[in-house]
Amino acid sequence: MKDPEFSRMIHYESLILEITEKICELMKIEHQNYYSMAKMLGITIEEFQNILEGNIDLKMTSLIFHKLGYNIVIQTNRENGE
Prior knowledge:
434 Repressor (Amino-terminal Domain)
């Protein structure tokens, strides 16, 4: 049986990874680089790099997608696949 805390952390880290990968994908599509993204968000390049390393919250996630012109759609499924 899995440790509940370990399971929670795996879910959290997976979500953060999915978000940061999607940001990088959209940056490529929209021809944005670290500098242009940081400028668009009103933060430093170092702060933006920190975001892509997984230090991101829901407010910043929403702002990034909004500034890139995209909506966030949430999809859920049961852990046991049912």
